[in-house]
TrEMBL record:
PANTHER family given in the database record: 3-OXO-GLUCOSE-6-PHOSPHATE:GLUTAMATE AMINOTRANSFERASE, TRANSAMINASE
UniProt modified residues of type N6-(pyridoxal phosphate)lysine: K185
InterPro entries: DegT/StrS_aminotransferase (IPR000653), PyrdxlP-dep_Trfase (IPR015424), PyrdxlP-dep_Trfase_major (IPR015421), PyrdxlP-dep_Trfase_small (IPR015422)
Record-given protein name: Aminotransferase, DegT/DnrJ/EryC1/StrS family
A GO term for molecular function: pyridoxal phosphate binding
Family annotation (Gene3D superfamilies): Aspartate Aminotransferase, domain 1, Type I PLP-dependent aspartate aminotransferase-like (Major domain)
EC number: 2.6.1.-
Statement: the UniProt record of this protein carries the keyword Transferase: yes
GO BP terms, alphabetized: polysaccharide biosynthetic process
Amino acid sequence: MIKFLDLKAINAKYKDEIKARIDKVLDSGWYLLGEQNKQFESNFAAYCGAKYCVGCANGLDALRLIIKAYGFGKGDEIIAPANTYIASILAITDNECTPVLVEPDLNTYNINPDLIEAKITDKTKAILVVHLYGQAVKMEKIWALAKKYNLKIIEDSAQAHGAYYNDKRVGNLGDASGFSFYPGKNLGALGDGGAVTTNDEELAQKIRALANYGSHKKYENIYQGLNSRLDEIQAAVLDVKLKYLDNDNARRKEIAQYYLTNIKNSLIKLPQTYSENSHVWHVFAIRVKERERFKRYLDDNDIQTIIHYPIPPHKQECYKELNHLSFKITEQIHNDIISIPISPVMSDDEMRKVVEIINSHK
Ligand SMILES: *Cc1c(COP(=O)(O)O)cnc(C)c1O
């Protein structure tokens, strides 16, 4: 069986180092907001090229905290891609803002920057970009729009740790960026974790307080905050794994390149990239006609697949107020898309077998 993602094997590579660091935390007697957070935050900010990093409990919270820190709320509109994981949209509606959805480009799956300006109104406060499946969004036009209309750019970088847009990394492409360290992400913890990166010192400080009951000083609360902290143990694990992230991403790129060059089947549409460094291949998503039949075929040949995602946010039951909307490209992607195995621990043999099996599909 070729697993979609073998988390045990991924973490086994760093097991001794992770265990030693966890031991250190255990013996320190200090489990929240301590040295491990400081060290990881500093290393992760540097990695992204951002000035500040604030750890928090998960990726959804990272995005919720950014929107909350800006003070956006009822009546404010935030532009976001229609084609994304639901957490991007939940962060907006949790702050009582209105998501204004924009169609993606069919071949990169990312938000189509050409369609954004028509959606800007005098209520628009921010553009939330999602670097979906690991590919950085094309930023040029979005930067220009943000400047022209005085909007914040919020990045959802949960799937794209390490991806570049030209010479800058995600996490440093907008005003603030939310990361997830969910175990299956390119940089994954042994449980939940998240972080915000930004170059804005005031915003970083506010988010730090908001994530800790709205408090800078114990028992003095200046904001109505949340409890959303990154555990010391998770920070320690992430700090170990961060050192190997570029290596792991390089292996993902190798496999992706092999797929792009060698998958040849007229029933299948491959994803498009616009530069080698823009994509860190969190998932390798292809489009295929008669997806269920294709999925069954791969199952029968011992290849695990996952669908990212079967239902777009605007068609989810929790968003009844959006259900009437129609986003044809988004819906087409959700109907046709399927993700095939890719991970830093896949072997050459496995990668070749995936291609062979896919090319024989009729
Ligand atoms: C995983 C993910 C999130 C949420 O991260 P959690 O840590 O699971 O809360 C947000 N946005 C996108 C695009 C994601 O893939």
